[in-house]
Amino acid sequence: MAPPSVLEAMAAPLLGYLDPDFLGVLADIRGLLRIAFQTENEWTLAVSGTGTAAMEAALGNLIEPGDRVLACVHGYFGARLADMAARYGADVHEIQREWGEAFDPEEIRAALRPGIVKLVTLVHAETSTGVLQPGIPEIAAMCHEAGALLVLDCVTSLGCVPVTVDAWDVDVAYSAAQKGISAPPGLSPITIGPRARKALEARRSPPPAFYFDLRLLTTYWGDTPAYHHTAPISTAFALREALRLVKEEGLDARFARHRANAELLWKGLEGLDLPLFVTRKNRLVPLTTVQTPPGRDEAAIRRRLLVDHNIEIAGGFGPLAGKVWRIGTMGHSSRVENVEALLKALGVEMRGPA
Amino acid sequence: MAPPSVLEAMAAPLLGYLDPDFLGVLADIRGLLRIAFQTENEWTLAVSGTGTAAMEAALGNLIEPGDRVLACVHGYFGARLADMAARYGADVHEIQREWGEAFDPEEIRAALRPGIVKLVTLVHAETSTGVLQPGIPEIAAMCHEAGALLVLDCVTSLGCVPVTVDAWDVDVAYSAAQKGISAPPGLSPITIGPRARKALEARRSPPPAFYFDLRLLTTYWGDTPAYHHTAPISTAFALREALRLVKEEGLDARFARHRANAELLWKGLEGLDLPLFVTRKNRLVPLTTVQTPPGRDEAAIRRRLLVDHNIEIAGGFGPLAGKVWRIGTMGHSSRVENVEALLKALGVEMRGPA
To answer: Is A143 in contact with A201 (CB distance < 8 Å)?
Structure first.
């Protein structure tokens, strides 16, 4: 859910996409995103689409046909990055881990062919499995040693757990609006570091999608904006307000709140004999995966939670379909009362028939 | 501007992208878009981005590298379509007309190499010049005779003037939300006819952008939806409400209202000695271009209209920079009081110094 002031911002009267007041909104978003991503990157903006659009912007701008991409796949979104890279004509090599596990950085090092791999794709927080990939700064350093760029999917980490783009030296990081930031979906944060910017400026051909062309987008989002496309105006009002709330709370306080509510949830689920799916050291704070109760109709339980209790939890998909539930405690929704309401409702379900 | 009930819809609490209530919203949008486009096309939906995203979806899905595209360019958006087609690897041939003119269908026929051209791109309502392209059914018929598909940009025509996709036999038509439909930008209507669908299903390779892949999008928007991407939820609430208002007013009444307000504007501008830029027979009802007054600082006048009178009119761009103003009377903004307020404010400006 989004905070009330964020939803209210959506209903403000529209402005033109080059109206000086609207350009002020974009400038605010740029500045606030630098705080959220903990970066000084000049090329920090929001792509006019939902999270998948930011993935497209990252890969579509950096890949030229024939480029070698190392895709680290340990869940659905890692696999999606591999698929996308192939669509842009990359020569994609994959390394894989079981869904529910994280990579050991040494596995990535072993697959990095120095001077050959241009781009490494990696998911920081796998929404399909509930795994947080550790060791990002080490992985970034080994990518750079091998002459490769690191693209990091932070869709479910930004605003929930630390994403320190500059300190980790990540080349491209992107996210979505509706998870840790708690704005309505429709504008998706992305930040481009100096190495990636250089690679992008050295392209031999323009990226296929004009709509996602970062050289043009950074002009619209820059100091002397010119028309490129119509931005989603209302969604920008809401994103600014949501990011303002992130800044107001403070990143450390926000991360501590997410952690405390996740710990409360984990303890409660274990108390209901629902085993957590991911080992503690790789467990993702804002999205918890838990094994579904054996012999029960898990989809029916989720349906009743939604209809009778107004609580939405997600099912598993791919190899985890039917096997796990995915429970989000992100941004505005990471609250003690939400965790308690879910545990109470699940407690009733676990005792009842289904 | 958007109607109050549309802005209110933006502030409704969020739903999940697979929540049955939200899937009902998508189904409503599908049905209402068929009314707006006057089509029975099953593949009728809204792309999760602003108008340029719908252009990408149209071209990115239909073009494979090496395909011959005939781009009809008589303004900025025609040129953008040619640029986009080239980015997707098309062999683009252009025919051109001066900005401010329309094509004679015979010019298009002469450029159509039967059996060679796969796709013709044409702008129905050129937002950069204020021209409405006449003769669409004739042009569609000659495209089909030559074995080509017709992609029609209806960004500034849908909801303002007739766009009868089935009667005209247009293969792909797309639009934006924030013009004739008067919803906030962020979801963009597109409809795909049977010939285009067949071409799309016969592709040898997937389109570069997963985000715009219509075979996948039509599954999410279909009768048994599966996850593809997170839709812009709030924007969908607003688009549904805006389309409901279009249906409630009725297309004929809506077109008559646009026409009457445009006639009022045209008469008033001529009364102020501001000559209209486009000849009457090609003049676009929802967007009027008028020559700027000679010897005056046209940008200063526009700035004062915005700051002192809260009226935004647009300048010209490309070859028309400084030469024309572009005045929108679209959707909810096509109202007698708006036209009168602008004429009054312009009257003051035309008498005053600058």
So the answer is: no
